[in-house]
Amino acid sequence: MGTVRVAAALAAAGFRRFSTYRQATVAGATTNIMFGFLRCYVLLSIAGSAGQLAGYDGRQLATFVWVGQGLLAVVNAWGMLDLAERVRSGDVVTDLLRPAGPFTLYLCTDLGRFGYALLTRFLAPIAAGLLFFELYLPVEPLTYPLFAVSVVLATLIAFCGRYLIGLSAFWLLDVRGVTMMWVFLWGGAGGLYFPLPVLPEWAQLVLWIATPFPTMMQAPLDILVERGHTGLVLLAQCVWLAIGLAACARVQRAAWRRLVVQGG
């Protein structure tokens, strides 16, 4: 029960922390909406007279874009943690002395951010999409809770990736190169720039099996527009989450040993 209370307190603190940046929230939501119009018109124009693109009809494409714009701040695969900076400054030593370890601290805080983003950055682009476009509404009622589960899994997978990037500072000190590579691959291989089914089948298979990127954006969006096999998509997310958690634990132990060896 004590652990639950600590986690709840950290999540609440994360929610309050991000809720203080109201102007940033408005600016971010506005940016998401503007890019939503741009992406939506581009994809719809590519679909053209055929009325579909890679199996997505016009309504599915519009939903893919607008819900995707809302998920950007929720999944938050681009927002790096301040762990790398704390490693460079040496403040990470203080984190190790706290009752809750760095992984728990950052994860619970990020869940608080997740809750705030759902109420603000997620709803704004969807409202704009509903106002100006005809969106696809799932036929099966079960799709909605499955989509919610998929979004949570996507957020946790993205957190694991960001945490591993932060831990890489124990060896690299400057993680800007790793961060840029992560952002580039996540956008192109995750379904942000375009739906992955536009790629050849072999390329899609490689991305789904060999990388976690499709599980963070393409997966929940495909579930929402009821495309593909939902069970396999959720299974892929669970597998990559398990891999991410195991990698975080292993790399964190190696990082702590390196810190001790260095005399920290």
Task: Give descriptors for this structure.
73% helix, two-stranded antiparallel ribbon, 13 helices, 264 residues, single chain, globular, mainly alpha, 2 strands
Summarize the structure.
By secondary structure, this protein is mainly alpha-helical. 73% of the residues lie in helices and 2% in strands.
Q: What's the shape?
A: globular
Distance between the termini: 32 Å
Report the mean per-residue pLDDT as an integer: 90
Number of helices: 13
- Largest sheet report: 2 strands, antiparallel
Structural class: mainly alpha
What is the strand tally?
A: 2
Share of residues in strands: under 5%
Q: What does this 3D model show about the protein?
A:
- This protein has 264 residues and is mainly α.
- Helix content is 73%, strand content 2%.
- It has one domain (2-261).
- The protein has helices spanning 2-19, 22-47, 58-75, 83-89, 92-96, 102-119, 123-132, 143-167, 169-172, 176-189, 201-210, 218-224, 230-261; strands spanning 52-53, 56-57.
- The protein has a two-stranded antiparallel ribbon with strand order 1-2.
- Strand 1 (52-53) and strand 2 form a beta hairpin.
- The longest helix has 32 residues, at 230-261.
- The model has no long low-confidence stretch (mean pLDDT 90).
